[in-house]
Specification:
The structure is a single chain. By secondary structure, the chain is an all-alpha fold. The chain has seven helices and no strands. 64% of the residues lie in helices and 0% in strands. The chain is rod-shaped. It starts with a helix and ends with a helix. 11% of the residues are buried. The structure holds heme C (HEC). Heme C binds next to helix 4, helix 5 and helix 6.
């Protein structure tokens, strides 16, 4: 090979490498905006917000799967107590608070019984849910006898 040939080969090689580097970087860059949170999250949020404005407390109780543990009619199962007569223990704020942080209430006698009865099942905390939705659930539950 002549010197010229070696130089052109080296040039070509560098070109090929640059081309692939650019292509690689390009795909990474190009794909992140469409896949990333930016595009997907607001859409999801807006569906949830719509659900929150439309769904009643009764529907939300099903959507949040409260019925899985408390029973389809909320009359209790062997996993969780009946959700009836709650208004003798809670007012609206207290019940919303409970749903957001049930562990704060475990010291009450009623909960000690629950703990025996529903071993290994814990009431999940719903602190990450929209407070308005929890409010609707609360209104619904306080209306049950
Ligand atoms: C994984 C099962 C499970 C799910 C899902 C669940 N709970 Fe519970 N819940 C329990 C258990 C078990 C208790 C009894 C207290 C304890 O052990 O923490 C309880 C207790 C409660 C209490 C207190 C009852 C009382 O006598 O003071 C309320 C109110 C309640 N749940 C409402 C709800 C609502 C509303 C939802 C849905 C947003 C829900 N729960 C979802 C298991 C569940």
């Amino acid at each position: 090979m002549t010197k010229t040939q070696i130089w052109s080969a080296a040039f070509l090689g560098i070109f090929v490498i640059l081309f692939f580097l650019q292509k690689f970087a390009g795909t990474e860059y190009g794909s992140s905006p469409s896949m990333g949170m930016g595009a997907a999250m607001p859409q999801k949020q807006s569906t949830e917000t719509m659900a929150s404005s439309d769904a009643s407390g009764e529907v939300l109780v099903k959507q949040f799967n409260c019925t899985t543990c408390h029973g389809v009619d909320l009359q209790g199962t062997n996993m969780a107590p009946a959700l009836v007569g709650l208004k003798s223990y809670y007012d609206r704020d207290k019940l919303i608070n409970y749903l957001r942080n049930p562990n704060a209430y475990l010291e009450q006698d009623r909960f000690k019984e629950y703990k025996d009865k529903f071993k290994n099942i814990v009431m999940p905390a719903y602190g990450n849910k929209d407070v308005k939705e929890l409010g609707k659930i609360t209104d619904y539950l306080l209306g049950l006898n």
